[in-house]
Specification:
mainly alpha, 0% strand, 64% helix
Amino acid sequence: MQAIAEVEKKYERGVHIAEFAYAHAFFRILNGSKRVTVKDIGWFSPG
């Protein structure tokens, strides 16, 4: 929920939003880093 709120605030302020803004915000809050790694994605990927 925090990630969604963060992105929505940026939309309200008119800030340029990057591609996959919600996913980036989610992973940033999840692991404390702006960088999304293959390991992070693999954690949620089936198989």
